[in-house]
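From the pipeline queue, job 12 of 40. The input is one protein chain; the requested action is below.

Action: predict structure.
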Amino acid sequence: MPVPRISKEDLKQRLDSGAPPVLVDARLKYPYEHSTVRLPGAIRYTTEGAAASLPRDREIVVYDSDPNELASSGVVAILIRQG
């Protein structure tokens, strides 16, 4: 199942809308801990069990800092598998 990607501009527009998406920070431990960048309201994804706490009635945007999207694609696969 292909997962759509969105631009920074599209994300900004969605965040400014009346129904903003849930942001999931999928960065690995080292990049997360050594970055000063945090998106306001983002949920830190750390384990497979975290998927159960995400709302099912809102759009979810998963992001990471890897140009190859390895961490975020892994989290997306888990979320899809868990429904």
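Job complete. Residues 25-38+67-83 form one domain.
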